[in-house]
Design a protein that fits this description.
Helix content is about 0%, strand content about 45%. It has no helices and eleven strands. The strands form three sheets. It has a five-stranded antiparallel beta sheet, with no helix packed on it. Strands 1-2-6-3 form a four-stranded mixed beta sheet, with no helix packed on it. The radius of gyration is 13 Å and the shape is globular.
Length: about 140
Amino acid sequence: MTGGTVVVSGPTEDMNGAIDVNGTFEISGGILVAAGSSGMAEAPDASSTQATLGFGLGGWQEAGSVLLVVAPDGTVVAGFEATKAYSSFVVSSPEVVAGESYDIYLGGSVTGDTLGGYSAEGDSAGATLQGTVVAGE
């Protein structure tokens, strides 16, 4: 993937994944957001030149729930309002920096323009911190 925006609201059965590749999947540009089951969750390869965050949520989140990815400086780099239940999440964008730690919140709100539930903006008021994930390349 070299550009554009891809938002996947993937499967809700653990025998499938929101990203499913046969071979390699490298990302060097654009925005990728994928939410789905954890059973066969995949993310772009470590050989990618653009950083990626991929993580499981330890349980299913309902359709309509909001997930926010917050950078070390407190800005939201990805907001997602689910259209389907999901238990894993992947995001890659030029805003995600390899080696940086990002806080993952459930709750709050997605703001700004959205595409398939994704926005580059959000508000963490009322959200609950779920953990911290380090972006990989």
